[in-house]
Amino acid sequence: MRGRSDGGQKKRLIASLCVVAIFLCFLYVYYGSSSHGAAALEYGSRSLRKLGSSYLGGDDDTDGNQYESSINFGQDRGDVVPKTFPVCDDRHSELIPCLDRHLIYQMRLKLDLSVMEHYERHCPPPERRYNCLIPPPPGYKIPIKWPQSRDEVWKANIPHTHLAHEKSDQNWMVVKGEKIVFPGGGTHFHYGADKYIASIANMLNFSHNNLNNEGRIRTVLDVGCGVASFGAYLLSSDIIAMSLAPNDVHQNQIQFALERGIPAYLGVLGTKRLPYPSRSFELAHCSRCRIDWLQRDGILLLELDRLLRPGGYFAYSSPEAYAQDEEDLRIWREMSALVGRMCWRIAAKRNQTVIWQKPLTNDCYMEREHGTKPPLCRSDDDPDAVWGVNMEACITPYSDHNQKAKGSGLAPWPARLTSPPLRLADFGYSSEMFEKDTETWRHRVESYWDLLSPKIEADTLRNLMDMKANLGSFAAALRSKNVWVMNVVPEDGPNTLKVIYDRGLIGTTHNWCEAFSTYPRTYDLLHAWNVFSDIERKGCSGEDLLLEMDRILRPSGFVIIRDKQPVIDFIKKYLSALHWEAVATADADSDSDNEGDVVFIVHKKLWLTSESLRNSE
Asked: pTM of the full predicted structure?
């Protein structure tokens, strides 16, 4: 009996070992094969970074060695340089890492949906970052050139037609064969943004029904912009709008705007300040933007107040402005009372649109009764601090400069582009320093275009980004070109973005250790002046930055890197892996601030996955 029992135990033991062995073989086959597939990477998994490390020939035991080697530009990287990067799964072709709903679900973030926290930035930690190239969608084509792109784009580039069906009665967009056409309509202006813009100018008695008011209105914030037709039709009046919308149920509206060549940014009026300094815009606009302006003591309307210049306008087209039902009348009464306490006045009201105007000075604020709400902001509040800063339900009073000038004190456009603004003094900059910076960058941009000229035509470039804009002189030097520039100012440096807005340009604040708030394939040219050197000092990954730049750069787009030689050497080793090619290298002009800089220009090749090629045949 004992012998038979031992034999049975042995048989059970052997059977168990066989089951375990089969299970381990299955895991090896499944995960081993998926790790070698070009389109089988799982975003949001720690193994993604690990795979990147293994793929680069680094140490599989830790992410740290691979990550640290990315930031030391001056040392020999040896065998850690990749021959190629994996390609992300096709479902990540529109990935926005810091606005990714899947990440929110995976990390189980507890967010307040009622105040739009789920539409604000939530970036993946290092172990959850992707380490792969974002593929274009099947059938992707080089975008249609500006100005034709204002009115039509390739359907294959943004294969989403739900807005065309959902907004079919409002002329947002229409599908026609291989293209998506934009008739210029919107929720409130079915018959065209151009007529609607002219009507607003007429309401304000501006000459020739031109909203730019002889150059006095230049920068506009369009909240809940849809596909940005309002901003598109402002451009012909020499007005530039920051078209703003979240990645919400109308998911691809900002993607359509940028594909059209219209300035736009993914953002939401939620709990954080918008990434723009105080007194940046002459006009804010909301057309049926479905925002509850009365919530939380009017905090969202007070955020617009912070952003408007002295005497700035808020054009509001909504049922509350004209409807006679009980609920709309209630909202209108409460909103009127709120803006009255904010010292706004009605500048014009006609049909479905009301236009309020902000006061020119602090006088009205000082005359309010004690205890009136909303209160003035605390004296120690910095209205220009925006990166990750919570909104507050308070009124931002004007500086002494604005109070004395009884307005912004800015020259009309285009003179303001080259006129030293008053807020230069906030940084200790003189007019002479401003003028020298403007002239320096004029020469540098001329040099850039000489280097680019063999590769580009007059209409090759449209959407440009200056990744470290300083005073905005790179963008200022491009005024004669048919381009627009997103000027980016680092969140931890001098907040010169207010000078950029005072020049009549637009931009945003950002930290390049994180992903930018835009869709993939949205910019034609990136200008990186000492950006890599800056993130090295922060201890962030140069490799991550290269992958992020590749994500937001359009196929056939260009990158201009102006940095130290070790940085250029570092980037050159990644060209093949990124499908980039060198266009030109040149010694930078010598100046005391940036001695030893080198200019390196690269071109991103158009590449397609095998699935995309099959679909395009």
From this structure: 0.87
